[in-house]
Design a protein that fits this description.
Strand content: 15-25%
Number of domains: 1
Distance between the termini: 5 Å
CATH architecture: 3-Layer(aba) Sandwich
Helix content: 25-40%
Number of strands: 7
């Protein structure tokens, strides 16, 4: 067991207009973890995040926009002395089929601006990525427009299952540390 907590950060955008969009699936994971532990988020002012603190586990949602997530992630990691290997970033992934989750360490950002920001702030790619599949945009739709749209009615049925599967992966990862 590591001395530092596991820091799980769900990426998303603040504000009501982004609730339920593909880009905010990281926030949904953070909310699921909070619900499982009957915890409520409080504001961590130094990092501009909403956070819950549990034994061995910190769960956070940056209050900045997705593309500026790196600074809050770095501030939390520094404040709680969490090395990059103890950080899990939950994010939407266009390369994975809907309802698919994958946890992996390191790797590229695949054009994801939230991951680019985190990598730049941490100065390393050696952190965990929890990818939640949202699929590819239809036709020639701009990927940025696609991720900022809500899930379709058909897709909405699978979102809670995917989020629960992702939360299960986080809890398994925590046990294995």
């Amino acid at each position: 067991m590591n001395d530092s907590p596991l820091l799980v950060i769900g990426l998303g955008n603040p504000g009501a207009k982004y609730v339920g969009t593909r880009h905010n699936i990281g926030f949904e994971l953070a909310d699921e973890l909070a619900s499982r532990h009957h915890a409520r988020f409080s504001v961590h002012k130094r990092s501009n995040t909403e956070i819950i603190q549990l034994p061995g586990l910190l769960v956070a949602k940056p209050r900045s926009f997705m593309n500026l997530s790196g600074a809050p992630v770095r501030a939390l990691a520094d404040f709680f002395s969490v090395p990059p290997s103890g950080i899990v970033i939950a994010h939407d992934d266009l390369e994975l089929d809907p309802d698919t989750v994958r946890l992996r360490s390191g790797g590229g950002d695949h054009g994801h601006n939230g991951l680019k920001s985190v990598t730049a702030a941490l100065r390393t790619r050696d952190y965990w990525r929890l990818s939640l599949g949202v699929g590819r945009p239809p036709g020639r739709m701009d990927p940025a427009s696609f991720v900022l749209r809500p899930f379709s009615r058909q897709e909405q049925a699978g979102v809670p299952i995917m989020v629960a599967d992702a939360a299960d992966l986080v809890e398994e990862h925590l046990r294995r540390r």
